[in-house]
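Hey,
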Amino acid sequence: MKSAAHSAADGSFGRSAGVAAGRAALLLGVAVLLGLVLLNTTDADPVGVTTDTTVDSATDTTVSESEGEEPVDAAPLARPPGEVGVLVANATRTEGAAARITERLRVAGYMVKPPTDAPKEDASVVHFTSGYETEAQIVAETLELPPTVVQPMPTPAPVSDLREAHVLVLVGPELAKAPEATTTTAA
């Protein structure tokens, strides 16, 4: 076989091509290894599972979709009690009921408004303004009321002035008759 005119007769072309191929293979191997290391340290999802996460700004909920699964609403995070304005309105004829419940919520850390009166109700109701449903549910739990009493604020509101409250508690007969919450303190 005759050697090409542009190659040296000593075989140096073959050696340099072999060295170049070896360097290319080594560089490729380092790049793959570096890519795997970076993917493993920055990817929180398991290999082969893709997740799309979106935030629904209307409800402050996070929705995640994984391959082969239905979307799931994550429970929105509740604001701290000190950031939730609560107005308690007496919807019974029991004198001082709203003031007593207001004090319970104040002790629990809520930003309470001065108590007021409301039209008579047959049962307690916890109303919430837009975006405060979770906080209203926690207020109901604090008062040991069932979750079914939590409802959106109707229009018009049951009281003439909400006083910038986010949650309105209408004290019904069962809450008006409830004994005061007892707290134990060291003497």
